[in-house]
C-alpha cells in the first residue's frame, strides 16, 4: 500500500480506537501502539528515508500532521479521563474552564427590574426621542415660559431649536396627545441635565416615569400602586410616607420617602441618619396637562410618578460614586454578572 | 431658607418642640431639611473684658491679651486686628469645642502660655465672618455664659421650599401654615408710626410706564435718620437667617423681608437725583451700574426704577450704586412694590444676578401686603434710626389686584383624593388657611372659596383640593391596592429585539457598557469625519460639546479608561443611541446602534493558552448574530472607513444591503486615545437589523438520511478569498452540499511562497435518500474541477 494511503488508513483506525476507548489504560496502550518507539506512525516516519525525494515532502507532512493530531487527541482524552477520575490523581481544586459570560450593565439591570414590577402591574413600556421640543418637555407639562419651575431642571439646548429632554415625562405628553384613555404606561430612559459632574450628579442619568389615566383614578390608587412597587423592590416590611411637594405637571404633588432598608429607619450613613430615603416624586396629573392633550379633565383623572434609576441602584447595591456607571470599568461591570 | 425656631413660636404661640414643628411642616409641604441648635459651640464660652494688650516681641500678627472673665483673669494670644482694650468679647475657656472642630487647649505660643481664645463669629458658628473677633455689647456682664449674654439659645430651621410657594418665603409665611395646622391665628407684631406733619406726597411722585410689569409701586419718605449698627436683637435674627448685618437701614429692610416676605428697597433720597420715581423698561444699550459696582448694558427685558432721567435700580433685582444708602445718608426713599414675576425672571436672567429680593418677586409676593411691609419698615426706621416718617404713603396702584374666587366641589375633592371628607371639615381647613368660604348654596354641592392675594399659587379647584390634602396630611389618603387600566400590556418589538440582542451578546462573553450620549467634537469628527454633528448650544465642557453620531468614540474612551486601570483584555458591547442634526427638510433623527468590540487577549487557563483577539473573533460574533436573527445573505466586503485600518475595513451586508461596518481601529486614531493594542470594532444601526431579521423562526424538519462527508486540501494563490472558494464549492456541489467549512489554513515552509493551503470539509446529504458513495464522489469531482478551473487550485494528498 502506498504510504499516503497507509497514513489515511492509520488515521481512520486510530481515531476509531481512541473514540471507542473507555479507560485511561486503553488510551495509554493506544499511545504506545501508534506513537511509541515501535509504534505504527513512528514506523511510517521511519520509512520516509526510502521515499523518492519529490514525494518525500508531501508524505512527510501528512505523517507529521497525523502524529500531532493523535498526540493532541490522546492528551485531551487522557485529561478527560483524569477529570472523570479513573486511575490518575484527580485535582478538583483546579479552576473550571467555563466559557466567558458577559455582564449586562447594572443600570440596565436595575431599570429592567423596575420595569418588570410595573409590567406585572399592567404598565406598558414606551419610549420617545431624547432630543425633544420645548413643547413636549415643558410647555405641555405645564411648565410655562418664564416660570421658576423651569429652574428645577437645568437644560441643555442643541442647535436647531430643540433640547435634550430633562426627564422622560415628555413621552407622557406625546402619548396623551395621541391615545385615548385608559392608558397605563411607564417610560424608562436616558435624560440630561445641565449639572456639574460629581460623585452624586451627572449630566446624563436614567429615569423611569409612569402614568395612568382613566375614569375615576384617585390619589388613593396612586398611593396603592407605588407602595406595592416599593414593597416589591425594596422589601416587604418597609414603612413609607407621602409628603406634599411640587411638580408643574401634577396637582396635588407628592414626594415618597421610604424607611431606610439598611437600618430599618433607625438612622445610618445611607439615610444620612434621618431613617428615611427619598425615592420618587408623584402626583395627580394636573388638569392643564390633560387639557393640553385634548383629554377631558372632568371625565378623566390620572396619576404620574417618576424616579431616577441611579439612586435606587446606588442605594440597593451600595455604589458610592455615580460616575462609575458611565465610566464602564470592567472590574465594576463584572461585579454585577 | 433659614429661620430661627423662636421666631415661629413668637408669631404663632405654638407649643410644638422644634423637631415636631419641623416634621409637621414637612408633612404639609414646607420641607424642613435641618434643625440645628444655635448655641452648639457656646459651651465654656463666656463674656470677658479686655484689660490689657501687649505686643509680642518678634511677632507682628499676634498680640497678648489679658481678659477678665469674672472669677479669674486669663492671658491669651489673639491675632485679631480689631481687638481693643475695654471691649467685651466672647472668650472660649479650656475645653471649649468650637465650630470647625477647634478644641481649646493650653498652648504655648512664642513663649507665652495661652489658656483660652477670643472668638470670631465663624468660630462660634454664628456666621462665616472670621476676619476679626466678635465685639459684644458693652451691657453684657463679665463672666456670664455667652448663650445667656446673647440670648442665643435657639434652633435654626432650614427649609427647602418648592418654587410654587413664594408665600412661604418668610417667617409669617411659614407661621401661616403652622397656624393652619393647629387651627390657630398668627400673632402679628404691634407697632405704631408717629408721622411728621410733612407729607410724603409733596416730596416724591410716582409714575409707572408699564403697569403690566409693575402693577403697584408704593413709597414712603423717612427723614433725619442716623446710620449706625443695628441693635443686637435685630442682628441676631439676621445672623440666624444667614444674612449678614450691614447697617440699621439695610438690616431693617432685610428684616422686614424675612418677617413678611415682601422685599423693600431703600434709596438715599438726597442722591436719588429727582423727586419723581419713574418705573419703565430699560432702553436698548442703556448703561447701569448696580451697587456691586458692575456696569451693565441693558435691554428692554430689564425693568428699571428711574429718577425720570437715569436708572436708580433694576426693579426687584438689585439697587444702583448712585443712590445706595451709606454712612452719610440722612433721608430715605423707601420702596415697596409689586412686580410681575415673569418680568423679574427675565430681568434677572438678562443681568445674570440673583438676590433675596429677586427670588421672592420671581415666585410672587402679595401685592396687597405692601402696606404692612412698608409701615413696618418705616416704624423700625423711626425707632431704631431716629427717623421721622413723613405722613402718607405715595401709592401708585392703578388696578387693584383682588382676591380670587374659586369654585369648589367637595365631592370632586373626595373623588380625586379617594377620601371621604365631610364638607364641614373642608370648610374648616379653608378658614384655617385664611381663605374665605362664601356664596355657599343650600346643599353645599358647590362652594365659593375666596383666596387671599398672598397665595397666588391657588387659583383653581384642584389647587384647593391640594390644600385640603396637604393640611390634613397625605397619610389620611388610603392606599388602594386595586388594579385598573387596559386589559392587555403589549411588549413592543423594538424592546424585545433589544433584550434578545443584549442576551445574545452577554451570552457570548461581551460585557455591556452604557454611554451618556455626549461626545467631544474633536474626537467625534476624527472617528467619523464628514458626518454632521449635533452641537450643544450651552455645553458645560469642551469634552461634552456635541451629541455623538457614532458609538465608536465613546467606546474608545471606555477602552482608554480601562487600560489606564490595567484592564487590558476587553470584550464589550453597547446598545445605545446616536443623534443627528435635522436634515434639509427639518427632520430630526436619532437611532439605536449596536457596537461590539474586542481588544487584548483571550482568557488563559491551565489548559488553554491565550492569544490575541482579532478580526475573526468579532466576525464570529456577528455570524452568530446573523444566525440568531436569521439574517439572509450575511457577508463582509472591503470598504474604506476613515476610522479603520485601510487593510482591515469592511462593510457588513445582509441581503445585499449594508447593515454596518467592521474593522481594526486605525493606528493614528488609536493613538489619540493612547491605545497601543489592536482594537477591533463593529458598529451596526439597529433599524436595519430589525428590518432584515426574521422573527418567524420556523422549524425545519430534521434530516432522516445520513450525511456523508469529504475533506479536500487545496493550494491556491494567497490572494484567493476563502469566501469565494466556499461560494464556488457550494455552486459546484449543488443542493446536496449541506455544510461547507474551512477547517485548516496553512502558509509556511511546506508551501510555495505566495500560496496558501486550505482544508475544506464538505458534508453531503439528501433529504430524499441515503447517498451512495459514487453520487458523492461525482459531486466531489465537480467541486475539484471547479476549484481547478476557477482558482487554479492544486489538489493535495491524492
Compact summary:
The complex is a heterodimer of chains A (337) and B (798). Chain A is α+β, with helices and mostly antiparallel strands. Helices cover 41% and strands 20% of the residues of chain A.
Describe the protein in words.
Chain A has 337 residues and is α+β, with helices and mostly antiparallel strands. Chain A is 41% helix and 20% strand. In chain A, helix 2 (24-35) packs antiparallel against helix 4 (53-84). Chain B is of the alpha+beta class. Chain B has 6 domains: 2-38 and 156-181, Phenylalanyl-tRNA Synthetase, Chain B, domain 1, CATH 3.30.56.10; 43-151, Nucleic acid-binding proteins (OB fold (Dihydrolipoamide Acetyltransferase, E2P), Beta Barrel); 200-396, Phenylalanyl-tRNA Synthetase, Chain B, domain 3 (3-Layer(bba) Sandwich); 404-475, Phenylalanyl-tRNA Synthetase, Chain B, domain 1 (2-Layer Sandwich), CATH 3.30.56; 493-692, BirA Bifunctional Protein, domain 2; 708-795, Alpha-Beta Plaits (2-Layer Sandwich). Chain B is elongated, with a radius of gyration of 41 Å. The interface between A and B is large, with 89 and 92 residues.
